[in-house]
Amino acid sequence: MTFPAGILSDKLPVKYLFTLGIIASGTSSLIFSLSSTYNYYAIAWFIHGLGMTCSFGMIPKLAMLVSDPGQMATSMSVIMTAINAAGIINPVLNSTLFESWRMNMVVYACALMTIGLICLTKLGHGRKTGRVNKKKNDQATVAKDQGIKPALVKNPMLWLCVNSQSLSIMITMILGAWVGLYFTNELNMDPYMSTLFTSMMNFGAVFGRIATAKALDHLVVKAKNKANQNKLPYNLIKARLPVMIGLTLLLTWCMHLISVGLGTESSTWFVALVAIGVGAATAGTMLSVSVCIMEVDPSNAGLCQSIIQFTIIGADIINGLPVSMFAGAYGWQAVFIMAEIMCVLVAGYQIFVLRLFGLNKVKSE
């Protein structure tokens, strides 16, 4: 339902899709807590999934609608941090406050429905995201009447976001799942180092997300003050691209150190710094993509976000059997060398797209 939900968000008010999804998730959770057969469980959880798709998938576009472009990155950074915090707090609350899973689901359902009603009554429709040029007979209007999705598919910025997001998610998943085997089996390092690496990656992600948000918003405010209003979305993206390129180059260097620079003689501080660099680069890139993808084509922002969501599915597939088979044949060091090569290719494409902006070959209409 991710793809249809993204299309619907471009056709219908995001406010109502978002609140409808939250209320549907709360209602289905309440039904789930009262169910006693597998059929009711399956139906309730299916409705819950639809509701979560409509609500969770609308968050980036909702943030775009209610935030000024110069504050968009900070808004997304707060949202992503809140999601991570919820993942940490939720297991603690479930194990300490609730005696049964049914009570947990009831409280969860009531909270969701309350939040949904508050959003329905308090949320506005936000700023407009249509094209600045509103002449009825211009090329933009004709393109809109004929359907602009083919032009969207040809947009290099869309594929830059897809490639950057896929790379960051895949590396995060590979390191999270397999770095322990690589450190202990091939590098003969203390198992403590792999635990340290994972912890420092999470710390680096928080730091990288905050630093990236500040840098993106600062550059966008500067670009917005002197931007050509007819090309405003692409001028804002152009302002953000150097940050994304810098993060990819940082990730490339960190992957090089992981593949050839770590060993039994590596100090704890060195391993921690590499892990912080990886976490900051991947989290910062994901934040940059979540912001830039909303401005690739503002009138189809929901569709663009849905396309990005599919990268998570693709990265999850690659991280499973394909990666383990490749590592079994060539070793884990080869996996990280391949990841480094992919970083170089993505950085090259990012620089190429930035060059297109500089040559004025990428148009906003």
From TrEMBL:
<feature type="transmembrane region" description="Helical">
    <location>
        <begin position="241"/>
        <end position="263"/>
    </location>
</feature>
<feature type="transmembrane region" description="Helical">
    <location>
        <begin position="306"/>
        <end position="329"/>
    </location>
</feature>
<dbReference type="InterPro" id="IPR036259">
    <property type="entry name" value="MFS_trans_sf"/>
</dbReference>
<dbReference type="Pfam" id="PF07690">
    <property type="entry name" value="MFS_1"/>
</dbReference>
<keyword id="KW-0812">Transmembrane</keyword>
<protein>
    <recommendedName>
        <fullName>Major facilitator superfamily (MFS) profile domain-containing protein</fullName>
    </recommendedName>
</protein>
<dbReference type="GO" id="GO:0035435">
    <property type="term" value="P:phosphate ion transmembrane transport"/>
</dbReference>
<feature type="transmembrane region" description="Helical">
    <location>
        <begin position="72"/>
        <end position="93"/>
    </location>
</feature>
<feature type="transmembrane region" description="Helical">
    <location>
        <begin position="12"/>
        <end position="34"/>
    </location>
</feature>
<keyword id="KW-1133">Transmembrane helix</keyword>
<dbReference type="GO" id="GO:0061513">
    <property type="term" value="F:glucose 6-phosphate:phosphate antiporter activity"/>
</dbReference>
<keyword id="KW-0472">Membrane</keyword>
<feature type="transmembrane region" description="Helical">
    <location>
        <begin position="269"/>
        <end position="294"/>
    </location>
</feature>
<feature type="transmembrane region" description="Helical">
    <location>
        <begin position="335"/>
        <end position="357"/>
    </location>
</feature>
<feature type="transmembrane region" description="Helical">
    <location>
        <begin position="105"/>
        <end position="125"/>
    </location>
</feature>
<dbReference type="InterPro" id="IPR051337">
    <property type="entry name" value="OPA_Antiporter"/>
</dbReference>
<feature type="transmembrane region" description="Helical">
    <location>
        <begin position="40"/>
        <end position="60"/>
    </location>
</feature>
<dbReference type="InterPro" id="IPR011701">
    <property type="entry name" value="MFS"/>
</dbReference>
<dbReference type="GO" id="GO:0005789">
    <property type="term" value="C:endoplasmic reticulum membrane"/>
</dbReference>
<feature type="transmembrane region" description="Helical">
    <location>
        <begin position="158"/>
        <end position="183"/>
    </location>
</feature>
